[in-house]
């Protein structure tokens, strides 16, 4: 009887031990499995981050090569110091700007916007229009616009990048639609051509300057639209005396003939105090942001003010 009881007790003890051991192993397995899952998740995140960084570097390299190639072609059209620049946008800003819906979940997009700058654009404008005729300058911008409109576009509209099993795409757009071109200098000064009803029209940051609107029923000296064959006039360089900084801009002309009157787009000389000028023009220099534009306006006054 005692032996039987002893055997039963030993069996119970063994069962309890096996239960505890099995329970411990289950906990250990669960912890190991959870740790492996966390490690796999962390590794996946690291791999995805590394792939994103590699794709971003490839996208930047592609954009830089694209920019250099387009810049070379546009400089050959006549403006020798024209610069092609680009800015990266996030998905929301790009979609709001260009009404683009990213409906392909297989790709992650890099969004870029092109823009065009020239430090000597004022000097080029002065040289090309020194006889009061705007046609040469308009023809030059038309040639540049042609090159811009013929810029290469990838198949499907974007450049594809593959890193492992992840897919990326570079999407490029620009502010000016086909047939229009804006070339900017600093401080919001720009020259822009766009197709009007009767031909190309020329604008600056101060408004439309060519062709002039008719006044009192009679047209001014340059009231006609830009004309002439753009095939040759834009092939050379209207560089003129472009060695300067191009800090002055020019608008309007006197009676349609004679030389242009050199003016400042913001009438700096009307302000004796840079703070007064900055307060007046801060929002325009900062694209409606007073704080961002104040310092730029102040610097512009110091650069342009003629003591």
From TrEMBL:
Protein name: Uncharacterized protein
Amino acid composition bias (Acidic residues), ranges on this chain: 266-298
Species name: Oliverpabstia intestinalis
Region (Disordered) residue spans: 211-298
Compositionally biased tracts (Gly residues): 229-246
Keywords, alphabetical: Membrane, Transmembrane, Transmembrane helix
TM segment ranges: 7-24
Keyword Transmembrane helix listed: yes
């Amino acid at each position: 009887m005692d032996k039987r009881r002893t055997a039963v007790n030993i069996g119970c003890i063994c069962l309890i031990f096996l239960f505890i051991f099995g329970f411990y192993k289950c906990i250990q397995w669960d912890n190991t499995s959870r740790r492996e899952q966390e490690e796999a998740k962390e590794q996946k995140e690291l791999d995805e981050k590394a792939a994103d960084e590699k794709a971003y570097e490839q996208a930047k390299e592609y954009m830089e090569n694209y920019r250099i190639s387009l810049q070379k072609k546009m400089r050959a059209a006549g403006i020798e110091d024209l610069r092609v620049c680009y800015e990266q946008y996030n998905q929301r800003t790009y979609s709001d700007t260009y009404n683009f819906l990213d409906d392909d979940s297989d790709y992650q997009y890099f969004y870029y916007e092109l823009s065009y700058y020239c430090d000597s654009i004022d000097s080029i404008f002065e040289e090309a229009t020194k006889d009061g005729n705007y046609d040469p300058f308009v023809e030059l911008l038309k040639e540049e616009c042609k090159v811009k409109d013929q810029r290469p576009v990838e198949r499907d509209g974007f450049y594809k990048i593959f890193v492992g099993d992840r897919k990326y795409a570079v999407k490029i757009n620009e502010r000016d639609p086909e047939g229009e071109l804006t070339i900017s200098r600093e401080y919001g000064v720009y020259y822009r051509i766009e197709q009007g009803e009767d031909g190309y029209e020329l604008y600056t940051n101060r408004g439309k300057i060519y062709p002039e609107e008719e006044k009192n029923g009679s047209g001014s000296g340059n009231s006609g639209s830009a004309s002439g064959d753009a095939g040759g006039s834009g092939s050379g360089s209207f560089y003129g005396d472009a060695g300067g900084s191009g800090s002055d801009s020019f608008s309007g002309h006197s009676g349609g003939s004679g030389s242009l009157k050199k003016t400042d787009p913001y009438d700096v000389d009307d302000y004796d105090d840079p703070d007064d000028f900055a307060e007046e023009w801060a929002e325009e220099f900062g694209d409606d942001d007073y704080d961002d534009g104040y310092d730029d306006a102040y610097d512009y006054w110091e650069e342009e003010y003629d003591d």
